Every structure is written in C-alpha cells, then in structure tokens.
C-alpha cells in the first residue's frame, strides 16, 4: 500500500489530533450546557471554574509531554527507558500540582466547601492522566495518531453519558465532577495498553533499566523549564476566569466561559496541527534542517488564513451562536464573544512558531515571552475586570496575545536563519 507523502501525512495527522483535541472540549462543553440549563448559572460557573483549573494543569503537563515526545523522536531506541524515567517524575509532579492548585484556587477565588470539593475532584484527573501521557507520547512520536483518538473518544463518551445520567436524575456538580477522573482512568488504560502492545518488540526494556538513573536526572533538569512554560501558558489562558471569579462571582465566569467555549471550537484545529507538527519539526531539525523554513512558513500562512476566516464568521454570527448553544439566559456573552473571536488569529498564527522554538530547544525564550504576556494579562485584568467584567477581560486577552505573538515571531525568524546556516554547513 502506498504511503502518503509528508504533506498528506501531516494533514491526516492534524485531522486526527484536531478531533482528539476537540472531543474532550466538546464533552466538557456539553456537560457545562446541561449544568447551566438544569442546575443554573451558579452550578455551571463552579463547574467551569474547576475545568478551567484543570485546563491550566493540562497545559502545564502538555508542555512536559512535549519534552517526552522530543526525547523519544531524538532517541527512539530507548523509548521504554524514557517512559519509565519520565513516568516516575510525571506522577509525583501531577499529585503535588493538583494539591497546590486546589488550595490556591480555593483561597484566591473565595470558594466555599462544595465548590472546593468540585475543584479537588476534577483536579485529581491530572494525576490519572499520566497514564494517557505515557501511552500517547510514543504513539505521536512514531506518527500513530489514530489509536489516541480512539481512547479519547471513549473517555469523552463515558463522561457525557455518565454526566447526563447524573444530572437528569437530579445529581449536582460534585457527582458530575466524579465522572472526570473515572473517565481519565478508562482512557489512560486504553492508551497505555495500546502503546505498550504496539511498541513492545522495540522497547528494549533491559537496556532501559541500565539507563534509568541517567534519564531521570536528565528529565529532572529539563522538566522545570518545560513546566514553567506550560504553567505560564496555562495561567495565561485561565487568569481571566480567576479574576472574574474574584471580582464578580460564578455568573460572570459562566458568561466569559461561554464565549471562550465557542472560540475554542475552531481553535482545536490549531491544537491538532500543534500535535502533528511538533514531531515533524524535531525530525527535520535533526535530519533535514534546510526544510524547516518551508514547513514552518506553510503552516503559518495556512493557519493565519484559517484563523482570520474563523474570527470573521464567529464575530458576525455571535448572537445566533450564543442563543443556539446556550439559550436565552446568556445574552451577555454576545459582546464578549465578538471581542474574543479575534484572538483566534493570534492563537492560530503562533502555533508553528512556538513549535519551531521548542524543537530547537529554545523553550527558555518561550517561557520569557509568556512571562511578558502574563504580566500584561495580570495588569490589564486588575485594571479592567472590576469595572467591565467579562468584556474587560476579553480586551486584555487580545492585547496580551498580540504581544506574545510579536515576541515569538521575531525569535522564530532569527531561529530559521540559524537552522538554514546549519543545514548549509552540513552539505559542504
């Protein structure tokens, strides 16, 4: 059977990864909608705040998992050793992070006992998702995006089905929250089983045991930088919700979250491309650095155009979209959505540029750029969120995203020049 060429394979994997990224979001959105309709804005807001906190940790660990993917692509012979070494650290960090986030969010947002319980239950998902991460990384590194998609769809189906059953039978947000860690366990087992079964003949378990100590030390050295990058990125996209919870309460969080949920629908395309593109860039940098510019710029042009179209469509159809998805009680979301829609352009365009820098081991610069963006976000929310609520936070989001993209674009341009010189030297 003829294998697809590089461009077709990247497009196919982007599609798989985009669906895998969209399905969990859709599951959370559906349960959020059910809570809003059946239990009211307060319950939906508490649940959304918990999912937002989980999204911070998910982004944090996605950055760490990028490190694992990069190491496996660069060193495929020791895949099992990488999984064992990384897995030990991943579980410990996840448990500590979930605990710290639960305590910190409860105090910062002035949550009561039941709200804190919802956050704690949902954040426990981050620990269980370590199983899925260990299965997903080697599959993505080898270009297998179909099996993770199956596991993700299974998890989402369970969450929506069980969550709907609980809500229609009169259960509240706490029982609904329990569906999240249970679903993560189910998906993690499927993902890890598939990865181990597929990679076992080439895993080199015996060799992995002799290399475990050195690899653990390597990951312990690299994980703080990747973790900082992921944490800053996660906070960058969730601070709006945290400030709104502090200054306005759960109802305003629900208004903003509804707009962000709609914006997240087209954003899954960029996230899918992020997952598919990264292993390709790591491999090209090692084997064919002269191809990096073509790959990166093609991705930038494609995603920027797609983001512009999506922003226009969402801004124009905002009233219809909000009423269709959330009903008549969310009219205040319409102006917020018309602002946030334009952030799609910045999200889309930045994906290949950030992936390039991470493939080139320039994660420290990405962290610094995120710190600048985060500073803008915090300052802007302190100034605008108390007076303008969700609309003020949406405006701050555009400014911080534009600043981040500008900084990253300049660095990526310089990095491409460096990689081209390396490629030219290698051919002499």
Give a verbal description of the structure.
The chain has about 425 residues and is mainly alpha-helical. It folds into 2 domains: about 240 residues, no CATH class; about 190 residues, no CATH class. The chain contains 15 helices and no strands. Helix 2 crosses helix 8, helix 5 packs parallel to helix 7 and helix 14 crosses helix 15. The longest helix has about 60 residues.
Layout of helices and strands:
Elements: H1 6-38, H2 41-74, H3 79-108, H4 113-123, H5 125-141, H6 146-168, H7 173-199, H8 205-236, H9 239-247, H10 250-287, H11 292-316, H12 318-326, H13 333-340, H14 343-359, H15 363-427
Give a brief description.
This protein is an all-alpha fold and 428 residues long.
List keywords for this structure.
428 residues; mainly alpha
Number of domains: 2
Oligomer: single chain
Task: Detail the poorly predicted runs.
Answer: 200-206
Average residue-wise pLDDT: 85
Task: Report helical residue fraction.
Answer: over 70%
How is the biggest beta sheet arranged?
A: none
Total strands: the figure is 0
* Secondary-structure content class: mainly alpha
Order of helix and strand elements from N to C terminus: HHHHHHHHHHHHHHH
Instruction: Report Rg.
Output: 21 Å
How many helices in DSSP terms? 15
Proportion of residues in β-strands: under 5%
């Amino acid at each position: 059977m003829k294998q697809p060429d590089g461009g077709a394979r990247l497009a196919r994997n982007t599609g798989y990864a985009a669906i895998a990224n969209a399905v969990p979001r859709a599951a959370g959105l559906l349960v959020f909608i059910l809570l809003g309709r059946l239990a009211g804005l307060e319950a939906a807001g508490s649940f959304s705040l918990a999912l937002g906190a989980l999204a911070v940790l998910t982004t944090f660990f996605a950055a760490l998992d990028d490190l694992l993917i990069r190491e496996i692509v660069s060193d495929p012979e020791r895949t099992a050793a990488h999984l064992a070494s990384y897995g030990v650290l991943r579980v410990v960090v996840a448990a500590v992070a979930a605990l710290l986030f639960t305590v910190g969010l409860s105090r910062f947002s002035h949550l009561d006992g039941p709200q804190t319980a919802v956050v704690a239950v949902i954040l426990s998902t981050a620990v269980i998702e370590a199983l899925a991460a260990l299965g997903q990384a080697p599959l993505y590194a080898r270009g297998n995006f179909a099996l993770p998609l199956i596991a993700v769809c299974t998890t989402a189906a369970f969450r929506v089905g069980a969550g709907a059953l609980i809500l229609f039978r009169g259960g509240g947000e706490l029982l609904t929250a329990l569906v999240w860690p249970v679903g993560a366990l189910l998906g993690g087992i499927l993902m890890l089983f598939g990865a181990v079964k597929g990679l076992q003949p080439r895993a080199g378990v015996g060799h992995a045991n002799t290399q475990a100590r050195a690899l653990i030390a390597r990951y312990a050295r690299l994980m703080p930088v990747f973790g900082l990058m992921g944490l800053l990125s996660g906070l960058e996209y969730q601070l709006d919700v945290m400030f709104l919870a502090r200054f306005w309460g759960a109802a305003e969080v629900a208004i903003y979250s509804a707009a962000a949920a709609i914006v997240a629908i087209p954003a899954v395309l960029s996230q899918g491309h992020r997952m598919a593109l990264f292993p390709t860039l790591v491999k090209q940098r090692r084997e064919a650095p002269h191809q990096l510019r073509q790959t990166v710029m093609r991705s930038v042009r494609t995603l920027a155009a797609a983001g512009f179209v999506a922003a226009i469509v969402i801004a124009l159809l905002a009233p219809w979209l909000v009423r269709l998805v959330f009903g008549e009680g969310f009219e205040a979301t319409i102006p917020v959505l018309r602002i946030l829609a334009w952030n799609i352009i910045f999200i889309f365009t930045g994906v290949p540029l950030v992936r390039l820098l991470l493939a080139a081991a320039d994660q420290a610069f990405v962290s610094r750029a995120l710190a600048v963006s985060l500073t803008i976000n915090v300052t802007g929310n302190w100034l605008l969120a108390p007076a303008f609520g969700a609309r003020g936070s949406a405006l701050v989001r555009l400014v911080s995203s534009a600043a981040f993209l500008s900084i990253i674009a300049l660095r990526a341009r310089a990095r491409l020049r460096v990689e081209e010189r390396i490629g030219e030297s290698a051919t002499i």
